[in-house]
Amino acid sequence: MEQSARELLRAVGGGLLVGLPLLFTMEMWWHSFLLPSWKIVLLLVVSFIVVIGYSAVSGFRRERSWGELIIDSVETMGIAMAVSALAMLLLGRIGPEVGLRDAIGKVALETIPVAFGVALAGSQLASPDDDDDSGSTAGDRAGVSPYGRLFVAAGAALLFALNVAPTEEPMLLGVEADWWLLLLVMAASMVMTFAIVFYADFRGGRSLDHGDGPLERPVPETIAAYAISLLVSLLLLWAFGRTDGVALPVILGQVIMLGLVASFGAAAGRLLVGGQQTAGGT
Amino acid sequence: MRQNWIEWVALLLSGVLVLSVVGFLVVDGLRDEGHPPEPVVVLRPDEAYATDHGWILPATVSNSGDTAAEALVLRATVTVDGAEEESELTVDYLPAGTEVEVSFGFSGQPDGEVSVQIVGFRLP
Lengths: 282, 124
Prior knowledge:
The complex is a heterodimer of chains A (282) and B (124). With 282 residues, chain A is an all-alpha fold.
């Protein structure tokens, strides 16, 4: 009972920690009425899948069936939705003068970043003596497959890029960047994320002589994670209507610029799930 | 898995909340016929008042279409002391179904009718 209350409060706290920047972003409020309903639903579905995947991959010690996983994820979304509704009310973004569709759109969009925070709070932010799901010790994550790791990378890329994607900046950067600048940004994204994951000795980082599978070698993993980051960026730009009627070079410019943010998210995500051999001691 | 009532209540509320929001959006999406923005301006002359720098005439702008209008420009034309006068204002965003409060300003209290024209807007 006390345990449940703590878990619930941790979920709310984690949701706010991650969600606050976007709760305070004007473009998020505006997109509630600028985006058609089906696009908002699609974004909710994508974030739901990420939440499921995140809970599945990240360190829950207890074994859970698919049913339990999905129920937990529905709960994550529900808590996030309640938090986002309360936040929109407290910030005065929802009131009697705001249309119902507009209000629900705002709550639905803000649910996405908050849900990622709630999912994180369920595992990574749990204190070690929380018996039920003490997820953040390295041993729990020993079984993360290269694909699982890339999935987490995609989720984290989405979380990072989501903070920037609704704003005007990627559009502006994409329009103004010269081709050689874009190439430099691509190179910088890959070199920096490579260094962060394999060289800089972050907690959860791995050494260069690691892994046997094709996707576990440092260079292919870096490239794969970067490609995923670009795809995530494209998805977000499309979702926020930044690609409608826009010329291909400008789309590419936006994708690469936003991809810089996404790739750092992907690197952070890979640090979070750590290395495959941590169970045997690094 | 779920030992007590807090967890059950959280789960139940979560399910209801998620389903109703998604359900609302799906229904709205299916019903949406894509009617273009249709700004409607209702003047509130009863609430008009004088300031040191002119006459203020409040109005409520709403949108009875399905689509939001961006950068909506409205122009009110009146006659003050026999001379024609215009007041123009911009509404940054006018979502469907939402009301926005605005005020037109004139040099003095208008004589007779106030006519409002939509100068233009941008589609999202």
